[in-house]
């Protein structure tokens, strides 16, 4: 068995290229900012984020990771509607806050059933959708997203799109542009996954100014730390890093999808992002988890996602050598 | 009028000596930890905190600053009782979470009236007290604190002590030792004020294991960033820095209390901490704020604290030169 240091982590969906070069120097330079409270209005941070998102700084919300934004937005509504399987915190955070959570099921292809949505969604509800969705790795097609937003609008409900993985996807549309006139949409993005910075805790979101005002009233003061604030001076401007990552992930995703599709005991779902959901036609997640771990590879068991059972696993798209190793492991370890 | 860079900030109660030397190197060394999620159980962090607090690591709670702990603990109770004037977030965070907040008044000497507490506190309530209290600068005497805890215990209520300023005070007692057998007490401390790190967002608290378990169930995952985690390797071990700060603040606090007590339009309340509450016997906070700002000094208007009016201001204990400057300003600017 491989020891801890040797283990390749396919369970965590982080950019395998690491953070942008130059970030370290920017953070070191910001050291003295630690001794002041973060600007309670995050003026500089909002400017940097709005320049990246292509919106006005009054349309930017911030949080201690995407998770705090999910938490705070949930506080503003009484009832939450989700489609399972989804990121577990769409259910857990609202429930902890005492909100009712209505679970609908994605269809057999992990698509949203508009009929189900139409039946379940009520006035004043918050609909939370991952786009792309974790763990299903599916981005909602533009026309479908448009229909979903229309339904939420008709019902006087609100749509929260969690796009923490946005930059990994093909840019067929930008939901911030798509909904730049919509009053009932909030779109979360984050530094965590794409910029490989889960430790820095920088989440941000787009919404129209009136909603941002409501959000700011309930946000905990100083929740974004000074290093996260400083990082935003650097990461969004590194166009080459952003392009390189997108190309790299696309190539490696295609490599994994092609190689894994040829393995007879796997049903590999298509992916538009940096992770892949797999159904095991033989064995179960526990057997695979143990076999892979013995070979130095950590995979994600997927039965912890409501709506999936032990026949599912999720793997990240990593660097080419690691990806070759996991392909070999699928072929030879089991 | 002084320009922005020249202004001495007496409104923010941060250790004037700055963070411990050596911290910068520890943070730089931790840079690569940014690319991993913080340990969801904060094992290393809890060990470092528990060694400092003198408790077991299972008795340590963590948060994105003391504020997140106040927030999370409030979530665990239906009704909150506070004594005003107090830190505004003891009222604001529970209300945002939909909790009922009962406000009692401190007496004319800003002491807790046990009779009032006895009348108001009900089964299952959360009592939040600052110790020392902001803005009144008073630490609760040991015998009084003991009585308060007895009352909360009798009522099956819970006591949350916010001791974010603990290290600045004379160590006449340590409430963690005092209540090491109490099941209904949680004691917050924080890196923010004493270690001069408001930008790093490191809050922590002590409670018995059963309560810590309840807290962990509702805590947002990864809310403490990787630099805050790394800082805890350094700051708590710097015994000389801790002693120097305590002596420095004691001397400067006494200097300010003595000098200001001789000024006829001020009623200066005694302080055991690194800030001082002052009642203006002439003028009001707006007049003083403007006059002082014109002389390069920022003071804290205190009417934003429920229970105080425009005749109160709060000032921090800062470095000796700054303290001399504010004393002169009280004597000459007004």
Automatic annotation (TrEMBL), chains A, B:
<dbReference type="GO" id="GO:0048472">
    <property type="term" value="F:threonine-phosphate decarboxylase activity"/>
</dbReference>
<dbReference type="InterPro" id="IPR015421">
    <property type="entry name" value="PyrdxlP-dep_Trfase_major"/>
</dbReference>
<protein>
    <submittedName>
        <fullName>Threonine-phosphate decarboxylase</fullName>
        <ecNumber>4.1.1.81</ecNumber>
    </submittedName>
</protein>
<dbReference type="InterPro" id="IPR015424">
    <property type="entry name" value="PyrdxlP-dep_Trfase"/>
</dbReference>
<keyword id="KW-0456">Lyase</keyword>
<dbReference type="InterPro" id="IPR004839">
    <property type="entry name" value="Aminotransferase_I/II_large"/>
</dbReference>
<dbReference type="InterPro" id="IPR015422">
    <property type="entry name" value="PyrdxlP-dep_Trfase_small"/>
</dbReference>
<keyword id="KW-0663">Pyridoxal phosphate</keyword>
<dbReference type="GO" id="GO:0030170">
    <property type="term" value="F:pyridoxal phosphate binding"/>
</dbReference>
<dbReference type="Pfam" id="PF00155">
    <property type="entry name" value="Aminotran_1_2"/>
</dbReference>
<feature type="domain" description="Aminotransferase class I/classII large">
    <location>
        <begin position="6"/>
        <end position="327"/>
    </location>
</feature>
